[in-house]
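Below is one protein, fold included:
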Amino acid sequence: AAPAAGPSAADLLITDTAPANAYTLIGRSFAGCVVRSRLNQGAMGTLYLARDEARELDVVVKLIRADRTSPSRVERFLLEARSAARVVHPNVVRVHEVGADGEGRHFMVME
């Protein structure tokens, strides 16, 4: 039998008390994925629920926090993305895309 599917990105949506400006990326597009809502924020990045319009599925977009964009942190973010992209395992999230938008925001698109 196939392994049980984990929760969808939509199931992970949380409610928090983030300031209104934390949601300014809703409606923006990263690699063809339109941001729908903010999921959570960690020490290095912010996670957003997005819709991959071409593949018609929900994904998570992780962006480096604006206050964490030093060259060494960007390199660490890219190393994380490259490392995760090489792993294929049911318990590891797949990375679909890595890049930077026209405003220099580094992102990765994950399942």
About this structure: Helices lie at 71-86. The longest helix spans residues 71-86. Strands lie at 29-30, 33-41, 45-52, 57-64, 95-100, 106-110. DSSP finds one helix and six strands in the chain.
